[in-house]
Predict the 3D structure of the following.
Amino acid sequence: MTKLFRSLALLLTGLLAVSMLAGCSEDTAEDPFPANFVSATPPGGEIAANGTITINFDNPPLDVTVNVGTVTFSGKTATITGPFTPGPLALTLRWADGIQALNYIVTAPCCSPPHIIGGTVKDGDIDVDPEVINSDGKIVIEFTEEVTGNIALQTEGGDDVGWIAKVAGNIGTLALVKGRELINETVYVIVGKVTTTEGNATDIKITFVTKGKA
């Protein structure tokens, strides 16, 4: 009987040791996908009191906090919004894998939203030749300043036509997808929302009508 108890005791001791080692291994294992800071927009310098700071990571960050403002994040991008107090701003961003300090000078709130100053079509255009746009393969919108945001090409009923949208710099682009060309005698609407680096937003709605068949 004594030998049996000794054997059970040794077995339990061994199992406990294995369990402890496994636990230590899990606790000390490195995150296989750590998030590293890539860039900030703006990277520093002046920012309006109602501005927005966009932070890009190489992987989705965890436990994101900031010492000033409000932070939200989606995927690999964190967005920090104010309002910020005018004057020097020493911003510290922390997340599970690191810390990043950014320095700005906060200026008075900016109140001028971005405006459309040109592009392939204008709101209210009629008799737009769809073949010309299809041949060019894109619709372009030009803004007064650099913006971020989203645009989409839709039918009058609100259905997405399926063109590929991109907003970069002061240009918004809708690129043709083969098989989804514009057709004659149809109302199209470009909708969306864009925001300047100072945080001023404007809604986009451009309605145009393609001309009839010859």
